[in-house]
């Protein structure tokens, strides 16, 4: 539809100049927007490919708005990622799940090392080598339980971290200024009405 407004020749010249300047400004912003780093969290490609039962070493990520190859560690419990997830409840929930799994994993490692240490301490406890006394049986049982528990603990641990990142990226803030393309006229021209020049603007909805 068209919106016509009568004006003097000077007014038309001023409005045309302002419109051209606005378009140039918007085009400049659009060009800059293409160069701005995405407002998402990006994982190291090797970490992005981790699946079930994957390695339990720290994840590395690029914070929102960062570019390049300077990935930073999220820490053992993912604590260094937490500040970036503020205001994203679902992402924080997934990160809490990841922290819980990592805590369980750490406790499981302590149980395994402790049980193996206890078993070894009993081998020469009485001078002669002993390999399966009562204490060693308990230690060996604890080690087996720990190894089996590791399989279940590792199954989803990495997925929780990746889900936290995915949840954040899904709700990542959109690029500012998206309203302007909708407000910008799709056509502009100069016409004559009642013998006087008018500026014609057209919007397409």
TL;DR of this structure?
This protein has 205 residues and is an alpha+beta fold.
Structure, described:
With 205 residues, the protein is of the alpha+beta class. It is built from five helices and six strands. It has helices at 9-35, 45-48, 89-123, 134-170, 180-183; strands spanning 2-6, 42-43, 60-62, 72-73, 187-193, 196-202. The strands form two sheets. Strands 1-6-5 form a three-stranded antiparallel β-sheet, covered by helices on one side. Strand 5 (187-193) and strand 6 form a beta hairpin. It is rod-shaped. It starts with a strand and ends with a strand. Residues 1-22, 24-34 and 174-182 have low confidence and may be disordered.
Question: Which terms would index this structure?
Answer:
single chain, 205 residues, alpha+beta, three-stranded antiparallel beta sheet
Secondary-structure blueprint:
Elements: E1 2-6, H1 9-35, E2 42-43, H2 45-48, E3 60-62, E4 72-73, H3 89-123, H4 134-170, H5 180-183, E5 187-193, E6 196-202
Antiparallel strand pairs: 1-6, 2-3, 3-4, 5-6
Helix pairs in contact: 3-4
Oligomer: single chain
Overall 3D form: rod-shaped
Radius of gyration: 32 Å
Flag low-confidence runs.
1-22, 24-34, 174-182
Count the DSSP helices: 5
Q: Which class best fits the helix and strand makeup?
A: alpha+beta
Share of residues in helices = 40-55%
- What kind of sheet is the major sheet? 3 strands, antiparallel
Q: What is the N-to-C succession of helices and strands?
A: EHEHEEHHHEE
Q: How many strand elements?
A: 6
Amino-to-carboxy terminus distance:
9 Å
Strand content: 5-15%
- Mean pLDDT value: 78
The strand order across the widest sheet is 1-6-5
